[in-house]
Amino acid sequence: MTNLPSIKQLQYLLAVHQHQHFGRAAEACFIGQSTLSSAIQNLEETLGCQLIERENRSLMFTDIGEEVVERARKIIDDTMSVKELTKSYKNPLSGKLTLGIIPTIASFIAAPLYQACKKEFEALNLVLVEDTSDNLLDKLEHGHIDMAMLALPYRTDKFHTQVLAKDHFSLVRHADYSVPEPIEDFNLLPEQSVFLLEKEHCMTGHALSACHLNRSACINPFEAANLHTLLSMVEYKNGVTFLPQMAINAGILQGKPLIATPPQDHAYREIGLIWRRTTGRIRDFRLFSDFVRGYISSQCQAKADSMK
């Protein structure tokens, strides 16, 4: 039988590639550096080629080494999916599930969703991670999280995407700040009167696109780091902003002299869950996404009923 690399050797190789340092990689794998170095050397002998160039305290992956790393990552993913598949089959939605959520969703749904999941799935250990869309996609690709909840559209071609709900935008202004109504073109708002989040927050791009706002003179150059700073600018009558219904339903405007007016063209972003196509927990993730979709819908409906 052909001598093949072991899963353990490939895991060690990925650790060295991630940390770009034998010592740190060994610590991450909870083994000694000599054990790690020996395993990598044995892997190179098995494959018959050099994967890593070593010089004093530095290292560099060879061209073939980089290709092997990519193949190794897929092998590890496929191997993990086999284990996840059998575990999911025996005990649906049990064990640990790490869910990444972007800040402009997490602020309004993370806590109540976490509590609802604890009640619904007693055997599930839900771990939440809040981060930007780009960071969550990177963590998902490298297996640091299992799923991510993002605002769409976004570049998620590598992953399976499940749309959960539409989250409509409203124009938010101070009660004493006058704007022409109805507003048919938001680009005609007063100069530098529209306040938005930093570009790192995808909600800015979604608001600009959904409300057909181009970066014209009406956009204020100030970029807020969070929604509360954004609302402070509006509360002091400096201008207006756009908020998703999820934030409004969560009571972010409660106690403030602010008015939310839905645009006439029903501008919205979509809320979706994404996961790796190679996962063995598809059954789990579909069950979870069905629950989250129902939860978001029920919350929005309950809020709508209370406002009648």
Automatic annotation (TrEMBL):
Protein origin, superkingdom: Bacteria
Residues covered by the HTH lysR-type domain: 5-62
Keyword Acetylation listed: no
Gene behind the chain: oxyR
UniProt entry keywords in alphabetical sequence: DNA-binding, Transcription, Transcription regulation
PANTHER family in the record: TRANSCRIPTIONAL DUAL REGULATOR HCAR-RELATED (PTHR30346), TRANSCRIPTIONAL REGULATOR OF OXIDATIVE STRESS OXYR (PTHR30346:SF10)
Similarity section: Belongs to the LysR transcriptional regulatory family.
GO MF terms held by the record: DNA binding; DNA-binding transcription factor activity
Organism, as annotated: Pseudoalteromonas peptidolytica F12-50-A1
Annotated InterPro entries: LysR_HTH_N, LysR_subst-bd, WH-like_DNA-bd_sf, WH_DNA-bd_sf
Name by which UniProt lists this protein: LysR family transcriptional regulator
Cellular component GO terms, alphabetical: protein-DNA complex
